[in-house]
Amino acid sequence: MSPVRRWGVAAVLWVAAGEPLPAQVRASELQSIAQTVDGTTVRITYSRPRLRGRTVVFGTKAVQWGEVWTPGANYATILETDRDITLGGVAVPKGKYGVWMIVSKDSLWTMLLDPKWKQFHMDHPKPNDTQIRVPVRANPRAPAVEEVLTFSFPTISARGGTIAMQWARMRISVPFQVTPTLSEKLAESEAHPYVGRFALDSAGKSVGTLIVTYVNGGLRARFDPNDPYFKTFALMRTGRHMFTVGLFEAAEVYAGGEIYEVLKPDLQLTFSADGATLEMRDDSDALWFSGKRISGS
Questions:
Q1: Whole-structure pTM over 0.85, yes or no?
Q2: SS3 labels along 104-141
Q3: Which phi-psi region, left, alpha or beta, contains residue 127 (left: φ > 0; alpha: ψ -120 to 50)?
Q4: What is the pLDDT of residues 52-90, one digit of tens each?
Q5: Taking the CB of residue 4, how many other CB atoms lie within 10 A of it?
Q6: Of 206, 68, 51, which is closest to residue 126 (Cα–Cα)?
Q7: Nearest to 209, CA basis, from 194, 220, 222
């Protein structure tokens, strides 16, 4: 009996005996990578081809210019999001998509997200109206060679991040944004009752002042004396007369600095209905301080 036939008989006997088959080693192993931002999870599942001695893959028989190519192997790479996002400024409804690229000799490529996500990598789909088209930029001169095709999330913010793919020296990156669960924006008419200066008290002792202003379409607050951690922060509405704290990435909060962290449920600031008093409590409902308005807006 030939070695192949012997292995075939052995496999049948193995399965018949209720034993699992040995793990299969693939040339392009499967990987899944995910990132959660503000409750939205973006996941990429793909098989990872290797260079295996090649120095160039793009513009060759492996990946030809103008080809509709999936950045992976075996079955098409999958992008899945459990909430609506924007990718490169293009709206992407929640769901599961096959990921394809129209590769170009210049740096302007197109990412195709195909709702028909279960496709073999050699069955290149033609662009059609059901696909979402996202313009992306390719950099063929990444500083280091990536032996195995790799997806990553190299940057993250409170509202999104970057999806990157690299193989050899070719690197593609595209920003994504999630729908925020909380916003630092508030209509001026709604914000007006909370604007002013509040004298703060903790355990019967004066601990300074909280100054609340309305700037750039939202409430901003700061402590006096200044707190080096909080600096100027956003008040983000969580309920009726209730707010949490949004910390800004940069000091230039009045020039549209980005929020990098939201302190929910760590801190909760609650105003009285008329805005005359306030309390700040932590996530164990312990009172940090109370405040009383000493001047209006």
A1: no
A2: CCCCEEEEEEECCCCCECCCCCCCCCCCEEEEEEEECC
A3: beta
A4: 999 889 999 889 999 999 999 999 999 999 999 999 999
A5: 8
A6: 68
A7: 222
